């Protein structure tokens, strides 16, 4: 079970480059249900996710590079590219801060996974976090992957107005 909350970011940490980070590329074979392929540095993963916003089932399987490349020809929509920073948080959780690249260059969002719903419900984010977008499906990576160039421009316009 994956239980996570998502937040927009008001201000990046000043020491961002001091945190461990990964280069991630992901694409979607299907968005309902979610079937995703992901490259995290030199690791390749196939992920299956059930429906849901705050909590959902998630299954991950390792792929070979050959399998990843073959499945990448079956994807639909845009490749999502980002640098994911792993920032320890005062409450003992790990902030996964995604700094998007490619067509979403300039977009930044944080995710925090929780062991249970009670922990997620009781969480107070740090001051540098912005608006919570957990329950807004527009901010799921699967939704980001399905936008046309015009819809990406509109997405950035909506972000700048909020």
Identify the notable features of this structure and list them briefly.
162 residues; alpha+beta; 4 helices; 44% strand
Describe this structure in words.
This protein has 162 residues and is α+β, with helices and mostly antiparallel strands. Helices cover 19% and strands 44% of the residues. It has 4 helices and 10 strands; from the N terminus they run E-E-E-E-E-E-H-E-E-E-H-E-H-H. Strands 1, 2, 3, 4, 5, 6, 7, 8, 9 and 10 form a 10-stranded antiparallel β-sheet that branches. The longest helix is centred in the C-terminal third of the chain and has 13 residues. It starts with a strand and ends with a helix.
End-to-end Cα distance, whole Å, is 31 Å
**Unreliable segments (pLDDT under 50, ≥5 consecutive)?**
none
| Inertia-based shape | globular
Tell me the total number of β-strands: 10
Percent strand equals 35-45%
Q: Largest sheet, described in full?
A: 10 strands, antiparallel
Topology overview:
Elements: E1 2-9, E2 21-31, E3 34-40, E4 43-49, E5 55-56, E6 58-63, H1 65-72, E7 76-88, E8 94-100, E9 108-113, H2 117-121, E10 129-132, H3 141-145, H4 149-161
Antiparallel strand pairs: 1-5, 1-9, 1-10, 2-3, 2-7, 3-4, 4-6, 7-8, 8-9
Give a short synopsis of this structure.
The protein has helices spanning 65-72, 117-121, 141-145, 149-161; strands at residues 2-9, 21-31, 34-40, 43-49, 55-56, 58-63, 76-88, 94-100, 108-113, 129-132. It is α+β, with helices and mostly antiparallel strands and 162 residues long.
